Amino acid sequence: MNKLTGDQLRNNTQDLIIEGAGCASCVGKIETALKNINGVESAEMNFALRTVSISGNVASEVLIKAVENIGYNAKSASDRSDDELIDEKEVADEKYYASLMKQMWVALALGMPLMIYSLFGGPMTVETPLERGVWLFVGVLCAAIMYFSGKHFYIGAWKSLLNHTANMDTLIALGTGTAWIYSMIVVLFPLALPEMARHVYFEATAMIIGLINLGLALEVKARGKTSEAIKRLIGLQAKTARVVRDKKEIDIAIEQVLLNDIVRVRPGEKVPVDGVVTQGNTSIDESMLTGEPMPVVKAEGDKIVAGTLNKSGSILFKATRVGKDTAIAQIINMVKRAQNSKPPIGRLADIISAYFVPVVMIISIVSALVWLNFGPDPVLAFAVVSATTVLIIACPCALGLATPMSVMVGVGKAAEAGVLIRNGEALQTASKVTAMILDKTGTITEGAPKVTDIIVADESYSEDFILTVAASIESGSEHPLAQAIVDSAIEQNIELENTTDFQAIAGHGVKAMLNGQQLLFGNQKLMLKHSIALNGYVNKAQALAYKAKTPMYLAIDNKLAAIIAVSDPIKSDSIAAIKRLQAIGIRVVMLTGDNRATANAVAKQVGITEVFAEVLPEDKSNKVADLQAQGEIVGMTGDGINDAPALALANVGFAIGTGTDVAIESADITLMRGSLHGLSDAIAVSKATLRNIKQNLFGAFIYNVAGIPFAAGILYPFFGLLLNPVVAGAAMAFSSLTVVSNANRLRLFKPQDH
Amino acid sequence: MLIINLIGLGLIVLIIWWFWVYKPQSTQVSDEQGDNSEITVVVKDGVYQPARISLPENKAFKIKFIRKDASPCAASVLFPDLEISADLPINAEFTLQLPALKKGEYAFHCQMKMYSGTVVVK
């Protein structure tokens, strides 16, 4: 067992939420198990709320384990929700901001007057005993300010030095420390230095500390804005839920809702957890989650998701996913993860950051040595100024921030548009996609096909009989076309019969036995494979296919019995969305297992000229590979389990969020609403984010890399100019701010209206 | 002047050795606890303490982060090779479950790479 630290032990009352306690008899069992633990003084369970209140000196981990040992699940009620974590973060940020501002003002209170004095020609030198006394006093004051306003830099630098790492604190501490020590040497031992080098830099030390604190404070403020999208997503979650327990409706905290609870949602309320409607009907606004503005009608049996808004009726639903399992919680998690991941472009900055600080320290020493050996008088003063300025200007924090800040805003922006980006790499690759493969069923079309025609080939069968046989055999299949036939039979109150020896033949159809008769149901390939005579029915099937319908042949005892045609309507905005993709120069290709004629008919309607039809599920990924071999950067969009390998192989896989979990798991980007406009939105956000990252990297490099030679004094031999350490301090402090502000600019970006 | 130049060069050599050549000792996580092996890492004053953690191969383990640093850089920890990232609450514990790992070194760092550490799997 884990050894528990003192922090884990709590000497007070704590609440656990119990899951899986379905009967009142569980109460005694749970209470006894808890009371048997050493240190537990009392344990009382509230069955209606499924919570147990325990007092005693025991860690929550031990209590949870004890409950789990008797077959229930438990979690601490004090586990903070995302909402609480965000609030805590904001409070902490506010506190940190206030302390940085205070430190800044204290440092500037000394730095500013000294700076003004120096700018107006006040001598910063130590010549007379009076000047010595005054500067000694200023030096001590400056040390006090270094302690009060800059302590965190020095402690951080020391700790990281002991850890064999170097960070921004190292540079600031070295820079300001060098300036102060040099100035104190001037004050204490003026005669040890040549007259021209008796210059003090206390104003630089105080100003640099003040300005860097100001930069950090402004950065904290600006950073808060970059995570607005995630805050908005978290804000979508309801805080309480009205559940039916013991035949009464009670309001409880969202964390206490258990799996299979019956939950009531009234008009105007947010859906608290994911579930299935058990009573009533209503329209639900899912726009906050999917970007789709039209409310969706929900009735008994329909799925509803947490965070969406109930518009009209009052409904009861059964909770199917609670807590961290709800779709919205998983989306928040996914966005958070993606926000923290880096696209490949960020790796360059990473590599540089890792070596940067020690390299800068070396440059600083080299620069000091060059001034000492070859510089004009006073060499020592020049050496100190250049070494200090190099250390101060080179802080690589802006470089480190350049990528993550833009990714954070970009991924959040995409999430607002109903596009979930899994990681930084997908974000970057999406901006380079040159060819987009679209699966037909469920991607271009609604994926909810309907039976449109039944052509009976053998007059001894009625249409009803054909539908009965077809629906009976297809009831075992998960194919969307099969579902259309079963739905049609159910609509006509046809009772299905039990088939035996059911066999699905991938890419062909299905085979089964019914009342001693052998049934074959599928495409032309299946019929040819079993040598079924199709006579003139091939033409009839072709005619249906030209109307974008999918014809399927039914053979009973090896004789053609009928053709059933199913049509899957094209999504209302597929044509416009495909045009948007083509308008930005993307080669759009359609991929389907459907027959060629139907596929061509659909492709023609939506304006696609390249079609891969009659593709077997296992060959879908080969088509992706073919396009990749042609040099294309391939995006693949699909919704089905059979699309998963192709989604995984494509450079970027886009899953339709209304599709299967397998497809979503295999994809890099998920389009929460069914619309293909999400593709153009994702690509647009991705391009804008990449552009923003490049701007940030350029800005950071300018500050860091270009700043160093100036700081080292490269301009001096030509123009007699040497960068002031205070200017370097200001540049360094504001470099991060520039990067964060530029990333914030991305928040204003809107994918093209549609 | 020669002495100053030699001191400068010595400092450069020291920087190279201290930051790049020297491998600090790692804090060993015992494998007696099986999959419940755990280590506490304190995030404070610009560093992870301990920053170098060594553990046996193929053992899942937990890192309990305690962030005591208000700086926004400290707010998230990333394990790029493992595609793991997490937000660390301030002044609170946050336990991160790492999967069983193969031999090698796995870096972890904050968003700006100013705080950095390594998990060494032996």
Automatic annotation (TrEMBL), chain A:
Residues 12-75 form the HMA domain. GO terms for biological process: copper ion export; copper ion homeostasis. Keywords: ATP-binding, Cell membrane, Copper, Copper transport, Ion transport, Membrane, Metal-binding, Nucleotide-binding, Phosphoprotein, Translocase, Transmembrane, Transmembrane helix, Transport. This is Copper-exporting P-type ATPase. The chain crosses the membrane at residues 104-121, 133-150, 171-193, 199-218, 352-374, 380-403, 697-716, 722-740. NCBIfam families: ATPase-IB1_Cu (TIGR01511), ATPase-IB_hvy (TIGR01525), ATPase_P-type (TIGR01494). It is a multi-pass membrane protein. It comes from Cognaticolwellia beringensis. InterPro entries: ATPase_P-typ_cyto_dom_N, ATPase_P-typ_P_site, ATPase_P-typ_TM_dom_sf, ATPase_P-typ_transduc_dom_A_sf, ATPase_P-type_domA, HAD-like_sf, HAD_sf, HMA_dom. Its EC number is 7.2.2.8. Signal peptide: none annotated. It holds the Pfam family Hydrolase. It is found in: Cell membrane. Its main location: membrane. Belongs to the cation transport ATPase (P-type) (TC 3.A.3) family. Type IB subfamily. One of its GO terms (cellular component) is plasma membrane. CDD domains: HMA (cd00371), P-type_ATPase_Cu-like (cd02094). GO terms for molecular function: ATP binding; ATP hydrolysis activity; copper ion binding; P-type divalent copper transporter activity; P-type monovalent copper transporter activity.
From TrEMBL, chain B:
Pfam families: Cupredoxin_1. The keyword Membrane applies. InterPro entries: Cupredoxin (IPR008972), EfeO_Cupredoxin (IPR028096). Residues 12-121 form the EfeO-type cupredoxin-like domain. The chain crosses the membrane at residues 6-22. The keyword Membrane applies. Keywords: Membrane, Transmembrane, Transmembrane helix. SUPFAM superfamilies: Cupredoxins. This is Cupredoxin domain-containing protein.
